[in-house]
Amino acid sequence: MRRWLLGFAMLLGLAFAQDRTQVLVYGGDWTDLITLDPQVVYEFTGVMIADNLYETLVRFEGNDLSTLRPGLAESWRVERGTTDWVLTFKLRRGSKFSTGREVTAKDVVFSFERALALKGPGSFLFTDIAQLKPGATKALDPYTVEVRIPKTASPQSFLSILTFTIGGIVDSEEAQKNAKGGDFGKDFLTNNSAGSGPYRLVRWDRGNQVILEANPHARVKPKVQRVVLRYIQEPAVLRTALESGEIDIAEGLTPEALRAIAANPRFKVVRAETLRLQYLAMNMKAGSPFANPKVREAVRWAVNQDELVQGLLQGNAIKVQTFIPKGLLGHNPTTPYRYDPERARRLLAEAGYPQGLEFELLASTGICGGGVPCPDVAAKLQADMAKAGLRARIRTIANAELLATYRAQNHQMVLAGWSPDFPDPDGNATPWSDFGARSLAWRNSYNDEVAAKLARQAALEADPEKRRALYKILTEKVLREGPYVVLYQPALPIGLSAKVEGFLKNPMMSVPLWQVGKQP
Amino acid sequence: MGAYILKRLFLVLFVGVGITFVTFVIAQVIPIDPAVAALGENAREEQIREFRERYGLDKPLLVQYGLYLQRLLQLDLGRSLRTGRPVAEDLKEFFPATLELSLAAFLVAVCLGLPAGIWAALRQNRAPDLLVRLMALLLGSTPVFFLAILLLELLHRKLGLLPGPGRLDPYLIPPPPVTGMVTLDALLARDWVAFRDALHHLVLPAFVLGSASAALLARMVRAAMLEVLSQDYIRTAWAKGLAERQVVFRHALKNAALPVLTLLGGLMGGLLSGAVLTETIFSWPGLGRYVTQSATSLDFPAVMGVTLLVGLVYSLLNLLVDLFYALLDPRIRYA
């Protein structure tokens, strides 16, 4: 009798264990999640999830953000019209939304018009970067869409933007059926999904969990039926939950926890590449010591990048010095500057500061790229620069206050971070080099007409090789003359159970959950 | 009595207005622009301007305050700057989790603190008393985050006796949300597996949150009981040869209850106003976490909503405590 019971219990246990391979539990701090509407969402977590709920016309695969691949569109064409660019997309037949309806050209038109009408935080990608106007998207037949954008916009940037969630195609009937007061179904799609992606949204308990289930009509079938995203904010608890098997994937572990996990055969660590850059910016406005190019050059020789990356960041970052991050077209791998305090001191003397220079360095009280507190990064920089006679007074303030000060150009030197708004080099080139864009170059009074022109020219260049060449010139120029010292490109380490296979977080922070499998 | 309650409820209105005013002033003193805080590093100037206009942040302070009060009269708490949703909806989603946890923690506090305090008073200066006092000192002075992580490590990861953070096993299908309290929702759905699991998940956070209150309560009950036990009528009761149970529960406890009641009101209020640390460590989606996130992003409609709610709860609890006084002490009458 007892043996029989034991056998039964084991059977039950096995059944349960089998079930567990069909559920993937992903823990992390998801508190930035405020909406899952593809045309509105602009937060890391929301984008990551919405990416699994909706498909886009074109998409990137894996870590490669320079080769466009077919998504809902099986092919596309870019033509130069007389006054504008004409992009024609051929939709693949038989793609279906989770509602069971077929994806057609009218859904594409609806989704693009929706993005323009809702004016979400990412809508500037359509309105400003692509200069897309209402009515410029047309359904030529149920499977052909034509989009026209002005000659002054870059069709390459627009295609890159279309891989982002704002270009996600929603079921127009479902959205309109649930629309309230001309909101295009925005309220509804905040908590519900109506896409053709591999998953559909089942439940979102704010602050607690998000549950996704395989979309029965999807073209792409996921390996795991159900994904649960658990909100876990506290790093120590995240580690406990991973080690106890309560979660399969943990994002936001401390460097010590990661070291312990990497040493345990039951777990593994993957490092997601990011497109983020941590950098120092020097205000070049008239009267500032940093208006002198020799002082800026001195600062570049006074930063010990290798120690920063290997020591403080424990390798959770890569060393870069140019402003287009690794992973994007046009990344320039050159690293001509190394730590040379003597050389920096000589440059300072030549610039008229033989006794050295004292200035204020602003840093956020928060966490910098690579999971290290910003005050720690600032302290390391302060110590290295001091040996070159560059005496930084560190002032740490809340991030929002730092941004306000930076925007108002009231800084001398600031430790800041930047991520491009869309996976295209122009997402960095224009803000970093075009004074007229009123972004980073403007904030630091870097007004260089040649750099701005190069950025504009490269943005509109359709030939990738020519584009790459233009960016090489531009990045080299800004590296030598600009107001920035790029410090590092952080990586995002994630702890996984060894049973998890195929997990990838790409540099745009999206995770193709449908490719993730789980061993029993 | 009815008139008294009405008068007190009327006063609550003034408390509410006072709270909104103070919160508004504090929000203005902070030298950070909420629009910049909400939109982040890449935000463009036009976006910031549009955001200010949309939320009325471009208007003078007094106008903003007036508009807020006007909406409040229509029971509209405004929209959160961070989540973009009506604050009332956010509160509806986050409050039940806090209510569930704080009720459980309150239960823990009462079930541990009350008997421990009585026991200690009856055995003053003997082993039980010393034990209770030591435990009260330990639990009362252990930081919540330390206790929480210690217990999670020990009871969850090492021994596997209790589940980890969260409200339900991620491998279970959660019951349909009705009340927002998972235990109650599971009961309503007659999902016994989920109910058991939800209760299980409640044990650790409720204990961690309730333990400090239990310690406080034990000391308070002990002191109150000692005072009462030394009085003449108790000596008389003993002299009459009454059983210990009767002396304690019928004669002593009732008189010791008044100060304890005041404390209980405050404790429940404190538990309800959100236990940020407990909620953060146990990934409990409650008001405490909501308000910290709102505060760090300077989302003052949300902060105001929570402050109002908590203020209201405190006022009502105080009223309730006062009414209980009358019930316990026949000398107290409200006219």
Q: Can you walk me through this structure?
A:
The complex is a heterodimer of chains A (520) and B (335). Chain A starts with a helix and ends with a strand. Helix content of chain A is 34%, strand content 24%. Chain A has 520 residues and is α+β, with helices and mostly antiparallel strands. Chain A has 18 helices and 22 strands. In chain A, the strands form five sheets. In chain A, strands 1, 8, 9, 10, 11, 12, 13, 14, 15, 18, 19 and 20 form a twelve-stranded mixed sheet that branches. Chains A and B meet through strand 10, helix 8, helix 14 and strand 19 of A and helix 2, helix 3, helix 5, helix 7 and helix 13 of B.
Percentage of helical residues of chain A?
Answer: 25-40%
Helix amount of chain B: over 70%
List unreliable stretches of 5+ residues of chain A.
5-18
How many strand elements of chain B?
Answer: 0
State the end-to-end CA separation of chain B.
6 Å
- Overall 3D shape of chain B: globular
The most extensive contact between chains is:
A-B, 47 and 47 residues
Structural class based on helices, strands and sheet pairing of chain A: alpha+beta
In what range is the share of β-strand residues of chain B? under 5%
Give the overall form of chain A: globular
Ranges of chain B where pLDDT stays below 50 over 5 or more residues in a row are none
The rounded distance between the terminal residues' Cα atoms of chain A is 29 Å
Strand content of chain A: 15-25%
Question: How many β-strand stretches of chain A?
Answer: 22
